[in-house]
Amino acid sequence: MFYVIGLGLSDEKDITVKGFEAVKRCERVYLESYTSILMVDKEKLETFYGRQIITATRELVELEADEILRDADKVDVAFLVVGDPLGATTHTDLLLRATSLNIPTSVIHNASILTALGSTGLQMYSFGQTLSMVFYTETWRPDSWYDRLEENLKVGMHTLVLLDIKVREQSEENMARGRLIYEPPRFMNPSTAFRQILLTESLRHPTKSSSSSSSSSSSDDEDGSDKPNEEPTPTLLDPSKTLAMSLSRIGTPTQRLVSGTLLELAELSEEDYGGPLHSIVIVGKRLHPLELEYAGKFAVGGEGGNWWKVGKEVYGVERETF
Amino acid sequence: MFYVIGLGLSDEKDITVKGFEAVKRCERVYLESYTSILMVDKEKLETFYGRQIITATRELVELEADEILRDADKVDVAFLVVGDPLGATTHTDLLLRATSLNIPTSVIHNASILTALGSTGLQMYSFGQTLSMVFYTETWRPDSWYDRLEENLKVGMHTLVLLDIKVREQSEENMARGRLIYEPPRFMNPSTAFRQILLTESLRHPTKSSSSSSSSSSSDDEDGSDKPNEEPTPTLLDPSKTLAMSLSRIGTPTQRLVSGTLLELAELSEEDYGGPLHSIVIVGKRLHPLELEYAGKFAVGGEGGNWWKVGKEVYGVERETF
Description:
Two copies of one chain form a homodimer.
Chain A: E1 2-6, H1 17-25, E2 28-32, H2 42-49, E3 54-56, H3 58-63, H4 65-69, E4 77-81, H5 89-100, E5 105-108, H6 113-116, E6 131-133, H7 144-154, E7 159-163, E8 165-166, H8 172-176, E9 186-187, H9 190-204, H10 206-213, E10 243-248, E11 256-261, H11 262-267, H12 270-273, E12 278-282, H13 289-296, H14 306-313
Parallel strand pairs in A: 1-4, 1-5, 2-3, 2-4, 6-7
Antiparallel strand pairs in A: 7-12, 8-9, 10-11, 10-12
Keywords (chains A, B): Methylation, Methyltransferase, S-adenosyl-L-methionine, Transferase
GO molecular function, one term (chains A, B): diphthine methyl ester synthase activity
Organism (chains A, B): Kwoniella newhampshirensis
């Protein structure tokens, strides 16, 4: 049997009882190491499972899938995946390949960031499509996430944004010289993510951004505008009027959530958010009072923070008493 | 400590090792019984956990939350929820209340249908907001799900639709007479769900539905239409051109998935889908070849089924070789 087993979000004990029993039966145990990480090291997993673990890099999974599947029709083989096993296309591919080799397969599900984002207090059912954001460089700022985010925001949905993880990356020089030397792993911090969002927003709407930084008084005849009566494009993403949240180390004892406006969250430092893994959420307009309240427990500035002000004035949500 | 612990999707062994250890420490253990069910009975859970379980009905949770939370600052109390614990608003409410009583809380996540729908082969990240469908009656056919579905379809997203579960429902007569007699539990079958979708579609677009049943040949001068050149409204939901899937008993040994057009799936019987629990998925236009291929394993009519024809002609996805 070829088992694909979800490990959940945090440590060795987040595996299900069913998954734990299966791992202990397996002759070979692979750990997928490139789409996410656990908060504990491989040795701790090996001790707990009583099994040696083979690290499955992207190269191994994509180029040597047959080696992973070898003899899985005769012995039990486990492929461990952080979170739920069927989040990434790679693993579906592996299952299709197993089926084509007449190898029986079994998927053991677990929590993933998609379910655990219930910790924000936002309702899972109100989330639209999930987005990914990669590290920007001076010359490469892929921002197709922006169009997808607008699609969600237009109909009031919340948006989960997964943040870039770089493991086993080579520097351009090492790659050019064919040296298999890898850079230290990098995990995008919410501080970076929110700044990239504000950067893309200002590049896509330069006028809006410059007009919002000018005085908001009605004496607009001084700014030389020749269309004083033109309505501005409705703002979907506004630094000080769009609410957002960060999710760090969800499911671990050091889990931290922060809620506030995009601007407030971009102004926090990397240290404010702490170590990986992180995700962020952009809050949609279809916000429920109970969602505002629960997520407000984590608001920048506490009870006096902009979270509540924007929640009321922009999102139109009145606080309820609990 | 007040623990809210996810049980996962199928049986007693889907709890995580961490959750299992917590349950065994608890003095009182509640099982939330009204938003979902496990495939095993309470007695089996009690034997496995070595703990007596108190069934938590909606009335108990909403009206006597303080009884559930009693002494949880001094002893350990567990509240078990099928799937992931933070899917439903009720449980967020319970956590807020615990915090306001200075009771420490701990959430132990698990798989939910939202993650497990990766079993369809469709990418979780391409799903839009999740919808719910209730049983229609002769006089009551709430169809606000239709507008939400259109929002998802317009931008190509897939849609998970959760199907009605009726537990501890009273008949109108028993309710009127104040008799606490409950009807047997009912779980909506995909067959019913797809028929309700077609019914609502035909009620919302009566013309389109009648014109699509007429000849599709180009001799449209015979149908008396006075606007022969007018383009029909773009079809978002078309019985024979929209792909969908059913998910039954996900995570259990009898798990069954079926994929096909809305019409094909509506024509299957309840027996074809088998026992509960079920969900369905409407496939969005942003369909990837790997998604088509994996989900196609479950196609009505197999390799010769409409799944592939519609996938190619309507969704524009060419098959790849694996």
